[in-house]
Amino acid sequence: MRIATKTSQYVVMTLFAVAFLAPLVWMISASLRPEAQVLSVPPQFLPKDAQWDNYRQIFELIPVFLWNSVKLAGLNVIGILIVASMAGYAFARLRFAGRDIAFMVLLATSIIPGIAYLIPQYIVFRHIGWVDTQYPLWVPKVLTPVFATFLMRQSFLTVPKELEDAGKIDGASTYGIYWRIMLPQTKPALAAIGVFTFLESWNDLFGPLIYVNSENLQTLPVALAQFQGEYFTQISLLMCGATVSVVPVIAVFLFAQRYFIQGITMTGMKG
């Protein structure tokens, strides 16, 4: 009976894996076909004659867009990790007047949909000269990491207080305790925040379309959107670009997978 149960579980998981991998396999296959064969009937998952020239064409078109996406993702990840970890440590470990009220107000801001303040934010950025620059794509996110701050606070709360007390006895400053003792204990939460932030920045299409006009400042999602027109879509090149854009996402997740899963499962709701 136990063997039958295990076998059925593996069969179900295999079917789900095949279902999730099929679109990815088709995307890679379509990226290696001539345009005329992409939508062939019946569909082919393996190209008969791989067209590697498609990738040559795509890499001639997207280097600037790719670099912009990498740069913005890096700024967002590094900035949010620094700001959220410091804010989370302050809300979790430091005692100051109005701490809990300030944290509740911070959480309350997360219920405001971004579309509600889009126009006022655009007007502010226009007046300070940030429209058609990349500042709106990372500065507001770095300065207002609500979810990341919440996650870091919960992670710092799970660290035994004895470690902090030992640092104080050894004469460590508040910053020294945060940097040398507390922060290394929250690697899973940092990894989870890093992955989430990278995905959000890497896949952001709306922000660049709103705030950026110059082509040399646009990002990879905008470049991929250019392959889709009202009357014609270059599907093979679009799939090439999509494949290129997926590779960094998979690489980041595989690199941080162990810490990422721990950060999601072990960060409790201790208050």
From TrEMBL:
<comment type="similarity">
    <text>Belongs to the binding-protein-dependent transport system permease family.</text>
</comment>
<feature type="transmembrane region" description="Helical">
    <location>
        <begin position="12"/>
        <end position="32"/>
    </location>
</feature>
<keyword id="KW-1003">Cell membrane</keyword>
<protein>
    <submittedName>
        <fullName>Carbohydrate ABC transporter permease</fullName>
    </submittedName>
</protein>
<feature type="transmembrane region" description="Helical">
    <location>
        <begin position="135"/>
        <end position="152"/>
    </location>
</feature>
<dbReference type="InterPro" id="IPR000515">
    <property type="entry name" value="MetI-like"/>
</dbReference>
<feature type="domain" description="ABC transmembrane type-1">
    <location>
        <begin position="66"/>
        <end position="256"/>
    </location>
</feature>
<keyword id="KW-0813">Transport</keyword>
<keyword id="KW-0472">Membrane</keyword>
<keyword id="KW-0812">Transmembrane</keyword>
<feature type="transmembrane region" description="Helical">
    <location>
        <begin position="101"/>
        <end position="123"/>
    </location>
</feature>
<keyword id="KW-1133">Transmembrane helix</keyword>
<feature type="transmembrane region" description="Helical">
    <location>
        <begin position="231"/>
        <end position="256"/>
    </location>
</feature>
<dbReference type="Pfam" id="PF00528">
    <property type="entry name" value="BPD_transp_1"/>
</dbReference>
<feature type="transmembrane region" description="Helical">
    <location>
        <begin position="73"/>
        <end position="92"/>
    </location>
</feature>
<dbReference type="InterPro" id="IPR035906">
    <property type="entry name" value="MetI-like_sf"/>
</dbReference>
